[in-house]
Sequence to fold (380 residues):
Amino acid sequence: MNYGFTREELDIRENIRKFARKEIEPLVGRMERENRMPDELIKKIMEMKVTGLPFPGEWGGAGSTFAGFLLAIEELSYVYLPCSFLPLVSAMAAYGLFRFGSDYLKEKYLKGLLSGSLKGAWAFTEPGTGSDPKQLHTRAVRDGDQWVINGVKRFITNSALADVAGIFALTDNGVSAFMVETSNPGYIVGKREEFMAFGSADNGEVILENAHVGKENLLGEEGRGFDILLGVEVFAKVASCAGNVGLARAALDQAVKYAKEKTHRDAPIGFKFQMTQWNLAAIAAKVAASRALLYAVGAGIDRGEDVTLDAALLKIFSSSAAREAAADALQVHGPYGLSKEYTIERLYRESKFNEVVLGTNEIQRVIAANALLRSGKGLQ
Fold:
């Protein structure tokens, strides 16, 4: 299927594909067993400068397209989804700085994030809330030329790996956002989360205990933190959907491979059983549809369009399609698909991820419905 990618975008895809299959794929088994990502691999991923792809060269970015960034995330996710989290979450912090940061903050942090010399985190979620600003408990109090931040954040990707984190806290004028260096004595890494998948990814608790930051580290205006969160979330939502497409593609390839190799009375099951063929076709249809929608929305971002509705629809469809693709691919494997000996077992566990993060699919349906009702035009 021709998506009209430019030569530069195709080169990005090819470079990241080669990197992922050479540097990441041989380590997947080890990372799953040890529940950690090797430091040398983290360094290599950051040196690929994926984070900087869609940002302009004046701040150290590659000046490429958002579609090129999506292709990179897709290729990383095809091989091992957790390895896409590191550049993706750093890109969230970078996008927040690019859109809302002062020149001082851009100079201090954005250039490092885009070059890969700095890693980022983005911390809103707390033990008592996911995305509701009215339930936020972390507070920032002004003290002369500084802000003092206290609170607890949970489910924070790159919590222990990041060099700088976007921290959301309540101030007198509402929710505000701050850039906090993780070397700050008041930034304390708490317990690491244990999920059904992604054991090798860094995700955990952040405790802010009298974390002092300068007034210049306020991101955007005081009280505009929730607007910043929503702006970055659309960017992140679409980027995360490239992970869905990569995972679904991997599930399809694993199913095709198994269907050609597994035999029943000397005949490959893929050629012998129509029910197996039905599953393969269903998976392929989900991959094709998800991929087409992903790059259509990505093109909209490159054109500077408001893709709030499209991003919600993309997340609803592609995340469900990834889960269904993994389930169908496991079905092709039969009971063997339950064994950790086969890649599909891991893909099946990972496939639930994007239906519940960055705003659950139920929330995405509300966002989409409200956008449709406000416009009164449906899909044009």
